[in-house]
Write a structure and sequence with these properties.
The protein is mainly alpha-helical. It contains eight helices and no strands.
Length: 137
């Protein structure tokens, strides 16, 4: 079991870059600081997604107010920080389920979602199938 988890973490580190959602934007339309803070927030999410984090945690990391960070992130990325975090986690979980056949609660735990029922609801909402249906194809 420890070896399997180790393999999963190794795999996760290799696919992190491919899982990052980036929304195309015109850099001239945004102040440099807005773009920089948005990218720093994405980096924070990638490094800390397994922890219980929220907008306040991320904003405090960079000395910003949560409202300001929320506003600039939404403007630059076209989505909220929480939606970005959720989608990031769920994309990784989907990959874990596809590649390693993990159960919903196992994938949820690996991506930092403590409530397996919540995970299952979000998974079905995003992918249109339960985890069991998804595994069947």
């Amino acid at each position: 079991e420890t070896h399997a988890i180790s393999m999963i973490f190794e795999f996760m580190s290799r696919i992190t870059k491919s899982c990052m959602d980036t929304v195309a934007f015109d850099a001239k339309a945004f102040p440099t600081s807005a773009i920089a803070y948005s990218e720093m927030a994405v980096s924070y999410i990638i490094k800390n997604y397994r922890k219980k984090i929220n907008v306040t945690d991320i904003a405090e990391e960079f000395g910003l107010t949560p409202n300001y960070l929320h506003a600039i992130f939404k403007q630059v990325k076209g989505t909220t920080i929480i939606d970005y975090l959720t989608n990031y986690r769920m994309n990784l979980a989907r990959i874990y389920i596809e590649r390693f056949g993990l159960k919903a609660y196992e994938a949820a735990e690996l991506v930092g979602i403590e409530d397996p029922a919540y995970f299952s609801r979000v998974f079905k909402k995003l992918y249109g199938k339960s985890v069991a249906e998804f595994k069947r194809g």
